[in-house]
Amino acid sequence: IQYAHPMASILGILKMIHRAHEGMCNKVHLGLLFVITIYSASATAAEYLRLTVDLDVDGSPEVVTASTAGTDDFQKYSVRAGAATFSGEFFAVDGNLPEVKPTQIGSSTKQKLLLISTLGPSACHYVILSFTQGKFFRLLDHDSKHCKEPQSRDNGQIETVTWEGFWERRDRYTLNTRGTKLNHVAQKNYPVEVTIYASEATGVAAEPLSLKTAGCKGTAIPKGRRVVVINYDALEKRYLLKGPGDTCGWTPESITCARR
Questions:
Q1: How do residues 164-175 score in pLDDT, each as one tens digit?
Q2: What is the DSSP string of 148-160?
Q3: What is the number of other CB atoms lying within 10 angstroms of the CB of residue 221?
Q4: Predicted structure pTM score
Q5: CA 73, 70, 66: angle at the middle one, nearest 5?
Q6: Please, which residues have CB within 8 angstroms of residue 169's CB and are 6 or more apart in sequence?
Q7: What does the alpha-carbon distance between residue 104 and residue 30 come to, in Å, rounded to a whole number?
Q8: Strand 99-103 relative to strand 84-91: parallel, antiparallel, unpaired?
Q9: Which of 120, 176, 228, 234 is 20 to 30 A away from residue 87, measured at CA?
Q10: How much is the CA Rg of the chain, to the nearest whole Å?
């Protein structure tokens, strides 16, 4: 990788802060050779990145370029490979530029994908593209408040993380055989495991938390008592809570806050 100048990337700083918080995290499987050259943002052609990678695994590497246009806070970017072009918008502050890098799903999938990371006013935005028969296919659009990029897993899936106000929902996707679409892996229950206070679950501090039965003896939790949100039922749109003793039950998804 060759850099023509140091770029002050807000996206990169956010990622470093998050990675320092997480410690060791799962790695995206790259498993490929590529060459990247980043040019100064003041280049006449507005091209700031060029990489060579065999996206469709046909033995003939594609030359992928990225360029920007505009002078406002919100600018346009374009990614090209051969005759294929993909364009989007990004929040251009402090010299921030979209990050474009190759990736693949697990170690057994040969097809290479492009992961595009851009900064928005309140979240990072991620796009995953595939390149097949000379065309780009947009496989995924994902916003992450905490700038957690989609991760490749060894089981051939891509995982996204979405902030739900007091817990992180993890969704998984698989690539179809043509390499043109990501299919969502259906999941009814999402693990949560977050402790909150009963009065905060309803937003009404003066009332106890009444739960719908889930096979436990108790279904009412006094205000101010700590409860554990065990999981989220995506089909019924409700949370399973566990209170003191033999108390548990379901409550609607409109939990207002979660002070741990």
A1: 888 899 999 999
A2: ---EE-TTSEEEE
A3: 26
A4: 0.74
A5: 105
A6: 161, 162, 163, 190, 232
A7: 6
A8: unpaired
A9: 176
A10: 22
